[in-house]
From TrEMBL:
Residues 10-90 form the DUF4283 domain. PANTHER family: DUF4283 DOMAIN-CONTAINING PROTEIN (PTHR31286:SF178), GLYCINE-RICH CELL WALL STRUCTURAL PROTEIN 1.8-LIKE (PTHR31286). It comes from the Eukaryota. Coiled coil: none annotated. Residues 169-196 form the Zinc knuckle CX2CX4HX4C domain. It holds the Pfam family zf-CCHC_4. This is DUF4283 domain-containing protein.
Length: 208
């Protein structure tokens, strides 16, 4: 292929997102290409392209529409999660393997309602980017929220935390906008009825 600008679509791609279907059995590509512009309320402003059976691209007419979609965080189609990120010419090895999302943390030990402690707990499940908690303001909900970059392998529902006082505390995690998952292994790429752990065919299937 000639290494000339007219043979590349970098300018168009710079206004696009690349995505990956996580559960092909429940997420069919033709329906996704048709429905996502409507879900985003961007009909006529974005064009979808099926790149493979699992990967897709949406090219936007305007940068602000692209940014608005990315800022929504978690995206779903047919109630199952999608992996979506902005197009890059040379994607890293972990491209489309992580998603940004808000997580609610419940059952915090009373002595650990501090940003530092909440951050440490949040890092049990992913890289913490934001802690939406102010110790000097009223806390009206029974949870605190963090924004994290989360690996797509599993959605950990709880962790037993060893406290300095030699006590154990079960901390609970709820993932906002995550709808369906396998309730056998908590992965996002298959239903419980066909979970490899449930039907006894070995370890859970890979992400790709």
């Amino acid at each position: 292929m000639p290494d000339l600008p007219q043979y590349k679509s970098c300018e168009r791609n710079s206004r696009s997102i690349i995505g990956r279907i996580l559960n092909p059995d429940c997420q069919k590509m033709p329906g996704l290409i048709r429905e996502m512009p409507r879900t985003w309320q961007k009909q006529g402003k974005v064009r979808g392209i099926a790149l493979s059976k699992k990967r897709f691209q949406f090219v936007f007419d305007h940068e602000h529409d692209l940014l608005e979609v990315l800022e929504k965080g978690v995206h779903t189609f047919n109630d199952w999660t999608l992996a979506i990120d902005r197009w890059v010419e040379k994607p890293p090895e972990d491209y489309l393997q992580f998603i940004p999302l808000w997580v609610q943390i419940r059952n915090l030990p009373v002595n650990y309602y501090l940003k530092e402690a909440i951050t440490a707990l949040g890092e049990k499940i992913g890289a913490v980017k934001v802690v939406a908690f102010d110790p000097d303001k009223p806390q009206v909900q029974d949870y605190v929220r963090i924004r994290t970059i989360r690996c797509l392998r599993t959605t950990t529902k709880s962790k037993v935390v060893n406290l300095p006082e030699e006590a154990l505390q079960m901390v609970l995690f709820n993932y906002e906008r995550i709808r369906k998952r396998c309730y056998e292994c908590q992965r996002l790429n298959h239903e419980k009825d066909i979970c490899p752990l449930r039907i006894g065919i070995g370890g859970c299937c890979s992400e790709e």
